[in-house]
Amino acid sequence: MPNVNFTLNGKQISVPYEPGMHALEFLREQCGIVSAKNGCAPEGTCGCCLVLVDGRPALSCLRKPEQLEGHEVTTLEGLPEEMRRVLGEAFVLEGGVQCGFCTPGIVVRASSLLKNGQASSRESIQKALDGHLCRCTGYSRIIDAIQTAGEAWNDHHEMPRSEPRHHFYFGEQYGLKRNPEMMPKGDGSGIGASLSRLGGMKQVMGDKPFVDDMRAPGMLYGGMVLTPYPRAKVLAIDSSEALAMPGTVRVFTAADVPGQRGTGMAYPDLPIFVAVGETTCCVGDFVAMVVADTQFHARQAADKVKVDYEVLPPLTDPFEALKPGATQVHPAGNMYEHGNLIDTTAFSRGDVEAAFATAPHVIEETFRTQPIEPAFLEPEACLALPQGKGVKVHAESQGSAYDQQQIAKILNVPLEEVEIALVASGGGFGAKEELSIQGQTALAAYLLQRPVKTTLTRKQSTQHHVKRHPMTLHYKVAADAEGHLLAVKARIVGDAGGYAGTSGKCLLRAACHSCGPYRVPSVDIESRAVYTNNPTSGAMRGFGTNQAHFAMEGIMDILAERIGVDGYDIRERNILNPGDAFATGQIMRPSVRGLRETLAAVKGFYKSSKYAGLACGIKSTGIGNGTVDGGHIKIRVVQGGRLQVLNGYTEMGQGVYTATQQAVCEETNVPPEKVDVIWDQEMGSKCGETWASRATTLSCAAAQRAARKLAADLKQAPLDDLVGREYTGDYECDFTAKVGTPESRKNPNTHLTFSYSTQVVILDENGRLERVIAAHDVGRAINPRLCAEQMEGGIHMGLGYALSENFPSTNGVPNSLLLRDLGIPRAKETPQIDVILIEVPDEVGGYGSKGVGEIGCVATAGAVASALYSYDKIRRFRLPMDDAPAAAPLLPKSRRQLVAAD
Q1: How many Cβ atoms sit within 10 Å of the Cβ of residue 669?
Q2: pLDDT over 70 (residue 897)
Q3: How far is the C-alpha of 434 from the C-alpha of 503, rounded, in Å?
Q4: Tell me: the pLDDT tens digits for 682-714?
Q5: Is the peptide bond before 880 cis (omega within 30 degrees of 0)?
Q6: Closest to 109 measured CA to CA, from 51, 68, 24
Q7: Is there a contact between 584 and 750 (Cβ–Cβ < 8 Å)?
């Protein structure tokens, strides 16, 4: 191999490289650099791989190793220590980091701005961030962090403030006040305080490893082979050319699996490899895996695996899929007794037909929503090591217990022979709930008795993992002369794509939330999840509720116009009150008054704006529907007066570990710097998957119970005398029933609890996004800053969903797998977002907290549609609303001409 002679972080080195590598691969695989992340290489869209070349920012995935010859390369590891400190402190202070995957690249960009004196203007920072994507934050706090770092750099390197720039979380700037009972106690490290994110400095500096940053002695690498066809019979797999490639060790196919190939949360319909003789169900299917001595060799060899197919016509319309005689996506059998219909949710109460017959207002419309790509910036990765008679698997999954169970079945080994080690996750948003490459990687390590690491490329990741469900929602709604809702009849069809996954549960949530946060005496609701050969759909932030809200909020706006009132007034007279029935029949508890408080908080903004839209949202916390939701915590007292808090939920940037830390500090008065929160497999097996906005609510309730036991002992002895003791806390909710079942008629409590929101979207004179004001009832803000961060990120995602994001396919094949074509809003396209936290403590969960992870994006599309109508008087029934002036700046170049042509 040829060598590159260059200076890396101040040291002159000569390092060999493989011809064909890009510079990011070279830096990571050959030079051991881990701060530069691979989010989309070699596309150059996400900015995660940014380094300095001769002091100038450069995307390393767009350069070749030989282009570094004779140059000076500086990565985040090589920045001056004082600059690292200033940037790290600023990002932690301002909340400019969540999952942390994109952050190191942004920090390198920020270092250049600081050095060149360009960190004072928000406009110049926004422009500089145009080469970066962040899926978590909504960008505003990143800009704040760079501005604060710039001020510190110019002022003797000292932080210019102890509070973040935007530290008004409760509408103080608008004359609102936080309830004094919600204020933090004591030293401000417990519940209600904006404590700095646990481990935030490590995340900012790129020192917290993700799976792809990990190494093991003797490690091999996996390269995956996906099918290009949504429906094709596999006739033969020829691996001879791949085996002849340099460094190839083995090629794995379905024939190598010793146990069960099928995986899936609801049904084991997703094979880890499609076998010869079987038919692919979507383009996300894997057919083979190459294992080689380097990642570069594994991927090159994977391209040489030859697969012969009989290409078959794909089934891409869910309504056609439901017709008698339709092509069956999966072969007939017990698992598929209903053909292409995966699941149906149906329930009713009252008499909708009688309401339609007599109501003065009946509205009937059909709404359609699109598939969108979750676009978490860390592609799926897994490291598996042989251990005893089984394996140890390092993963960034949202469901460790599920991973363990499925891998044990794949390897045909006892459950206890599979150990899961959870690693930091670079975003998930629901799409990392199912197995991706954990099973294949564990198989390779188990059979080869060598450590194996597999990381998907960005294109493979996008091709494989689930999308937000495209849905068709037909609504018929009745109201009286004053606009009070009388009846809702909804028929919802969701395109599940090739595999069931969580589609049944997502369509269940769509049905449950089909009436939005409104009081409706009579309902008749049905939702269906349907197989097609389109890319697989699954969980994504909101879990089916976003689609239903877009439809119901659109109905509310039409109703308001018919009776001659505005969007605020129609909602004010219909929102749920204590004692009212939710769509499923669940009787709302007193804490639902938080919904009315969110509406009241934004009244003035909506009423006083020329072009504004308003929408309300409700999102269940927890899984509910007959399942047990639980939080489980163990506290260990260790040497040095420290506590280890063991949690089973996944930290994905949402701040669950920080919130857990605060609960322990609240009850024990142990300072936060003495409290470590770590993931634990035993707790993970009890907690289950990290989804449904439940992790913080349940973890804090469990931590409260465990910490109170410790606090009782601390009254009798100092912490040092308690070393070795453990304190457990368990909090379980088992009082729900699945909607539509006989049990739910007796016990209509279908959900653990709910969170609420009202959002106002304001447009400028040109119909472009100007501002979003979002009032959210979070029950109790465990950490107000982290709550606000979650809301801002959710709103940013909701704006993209409303206006620009799409993942179109033609005959089941995605039109593009490029990150740049997804339509994700960037920093300069993101409007001002003002969050107002409302605190109406809940009757369930830790300290009265309600879920915050998903509610941020539930109402956004409806609010945008309402604002657009106020501007151009066009009713829009389809997402994305990319024909609107507000969408134009957000659309990727590849779609602007198509929209113009339409």
Answers
A1: 15
A2: no
A3: 12
A4: 998 889 888 767 889 999 999 999 999 999 999
A5: yes
A6: 51
A7: yes
pLDDT digits (tens, 9 = 90+) for 743-781: 888 888 999 999 999 999 999 999 999 999 999 999 999
Residue 13 in 3-state DSSP?
Answer: strand
Distance CA 194, CA 181 (A): 16
Closest CA to 526 of 326, 346, 714: 346
As a whole number of Å, the end-to-end CA separation of the chain is 52
895 has a pLDDT exceeding 80:
no
Measured between alpha carbons, how far is 329 from 344 in angstroms, rounded to an integer? 17
The DSSP result for 279-316, as a single string, is B--STT-EEEEEEESSHHHHHHHHTT-EEEEEE-----
- Reference 792, options 838, 857, 840, 851; nearest CA is 857
Contact by Cβ (8 Å): 136, 81: no
Inform me whether the pLDDT recorded for 901 exceeds 80: no
Only one residue has tokens 């928000």, namely 122
Q: What does the pLDDT look like over 427-441, one tens digit per residue? A: 999 889 889 999 999
Phi then psi for residue 533, to 5 deg, are -100, 15
**DSSP string computed for 445-507:** HHHHTS-EEEE--HHHHHHHS-BPPPEEEEEEEEE-TT--EEEEEEEEEEEEET--TTHHHHH
Q: What is the pLDDT of residues 597-655, one digit of tens each?
A: 999 999 999 999 999 999 999 999 988 999 899 999 999 999 999 999 999 998 888 89
Residue found by looking up tokens 């976003």 in the block:
546
Q: 275 and 231 in contact (C-beta within 8 Å)?
A: no
Q: Partners of 621 in the beta sheet? A: 753
Q: How far apart are CA 629 and CA 252, in angstroms?
A: 38
SS3 660: helix
Distance, in Å, from the CA atom of 607 to the CA atom of 335, rounded to the nearest integer, reads 53
pLDDT tens for 246-265 read 999 999 999 999 999 999 98
Radius of gyration of the chain, Cα coordinates, nearest whole angstrom: 27
Those residues whose C-beta lies under 8 Å from the C-beta of residue 384, and which sit 6 or more positions away, are: 391, 392, 393, 394, 438, 441, 442, 444, 445, 446, 451, 452, 453
The region, left, alpha or beta by phi > 0 then psi within -120 to 50, assigned to residue 154 is alpha
What's the Cα-to-Cα distance from 107 to each of 114, 132, 214, 883, rounded to whole Å? 10, 11, 21, 35
CB distance 843 to 753 below 8 Å = yes
User: CA 298 to CA 460: how far, in whole Å?
Assistant: 14
Which residue has tokens 């701005």? 113
Question: Cis bond leading into 246, ω under 30°?
Answer: no
List the one residue out of 524, 464, 487 whose CA is nearest residue 357.
Answer: 487
Contacts for 769 with CB less than 8 Å, ≥ 6 apart: 761, 763, 799, 803, 829, 831, 886
| Global confidence as pTM | 0.96
3-state class of 94 per DSSP?
A: helix
User: Where do runs of H (alpha helix) occur along 483-602?
Assistant: 503-512, 545-563, 567-572, 593-601
What are the distances in angstroms from CA 253 to CA 5, 225, 261, 517? 41, 10, 11, 49
How are beta strands 3-8 and 11-16 bridged, if at all?
Answer: antiparallel
